[in-house]
Amino acid sequence: MADYNLGMNAKLYRGANDALIAAMTEVTNIKDLTLNLESGEADVTTRAASGWRATAPTLRECTVEFELLWKSADANFEAFRDAFINGTTVELAALDQARATSGAQGIKGNFSITNCSRSEPLEEGITVSVTAKLSKFNEWHETA
Question: Does the 7-142 domain belong in CATH 2.30.110?
Fold first, then answer.
């Protein structure tokens, strides 16, 4: 067994808000995905810090950015497009492996679609770049 995971084995799942992971659908029409996990920071420096700035994490945020082929009949594509147009959210789980794989892990929650941009390169398929921002954190999913 390898000590690393390949990006091609990672999975993105989509479902209705607050869906159980077993009820979610795999998004197979996906190219590249980036999971951004960040936090704000507070300066908690005091005189006791011996001249060093001290920082504490504050509010966390999560953004999932990915690219799909523009397939108007694809149910996942339609769900992302409709969520963007209607200002609604979708449940996403961005896992490093298939959900049934022991040790698979990643964030799961309701996401707002804040970007749905189409790219039309001359010699490539039309793609859509999607940005999903966490609206409600449900769990850090880990498969036992």
Answer: yes
